[in-house]
Design a protein that fits this description.
Blueprint lengths: L1 E6 L4 E6 L5 E5 L5 H11 L2 E6 L5 H4 L2 H10 L5 E5 L10 H10 L3 H10 L8 E3 L11 E4 L8 E5 L4 E5 L2 E2 L2 E2 L9 H12 L7 E4 L5 E2 H7 L5
Parallel strand pairs: 3-4, 4-5, 5-6, 9-12
Antiparallel strand pairs: 1-2, 2-3, 7-8, 8-9, 10-11, 12-13
Helix pairs in contact: 1-3, 4-5
């Protein structure tokens, strides 16, 4: 089961992914913690943990509030992200996030002030080819949007959570801290495009797509 919750000013896709009756993982809780928590309560789901495809603020902003809520329920949630994005988490993260938004000018400064919440530290580092939280999602390290960007792939279910690496007929920006356009194109063309055509893609923003469609219509795919 995959459910999408669109959160925050930047319309980030937060996903609730479950292969179990009463448990799930949360992917990219980028804002609107009340909306995410209400969905979990309504569906009677308990998260096993939280997975981040990368560390940008619009994908992690609700972390602290969600962690705090579940602490009150006597449930400890681990946060999983790639080590190369560790700079976006913990006590020193505010300056990094603020600097990234400053590159967007006055609008960026306003967005930062609206989005920023203290970001907890990472508990578990995601590793290439390894599963996380005992589910069928395998980690694919796909640097480019950030150094630690990852995609999460289920071969069994033919699905890919692509974060801000691959969008519907587009790709993530590379002009912010840690971005690298050449690395992004390598990640997409060497790791994602070899996946089966039928693979459903659940991106960090915008509508869902498939590998077949992106191979045929995405102008950034070689």
């Amino acid at each position: 089961m995959v459910e999408r919750i669109i959160v925050g000013r930047l319309n980030t896709n937060c996903y609730i992914y479950s292969r179990w009756k009463k448990e799930c993982v949360i992917i990219d809780p980028g804002g609107d913690h009340e909306k995410i928590i209400s969905h979990m309560v309504e569906k009677n789901l308990t998260p096993r943990g939280i997975i981040l495809t990368h560390g940008h603020l619009d994908h992690v902003s609700a972390l602290g509030k969600i962690i705090d809520y579940y602490v009150e329920q006597d449930i400890h949630l681990d946060i999983a992200a790639h080590e190369d994005d560790a700079i976006f988490f913990g006590s020193g993260a505010r300056e990094i996030h603020e600097a990234a938004f400053q590159q967007m000018g006055i609008e960026g400064k306003t967005l930062f002030q609206e989005l920023y919440k203290p970001i907890p530290d990472i508990d578990l580092f995601l590793e290439e080819g390894k599963s996380v939280f005992d589910c069928d999602l395998s980690v694919m390290h796909t640097p480019g949007h950030t150094k630690g960007s990852v995609c999460l792939y289920s071969e069994e279910s033919d699905m890919l959570f692509s974060g801000d690496t691959l969008f519907f007929e587009g790709v993530g920006r590379t002009d912010l801290f840690g971005g690298d356009s050449q690395a992004l194109f390598r990640s997409i063309n060497e790791k994602l495009m070899p996946l089966p055509d039928r693979t459903r893609v659940f991106p960090g923003h915008g509508p869902l797509t498939t590998i077949e469609r992106e191979r045929g219509y995405n102008p950034y795919v070689q």
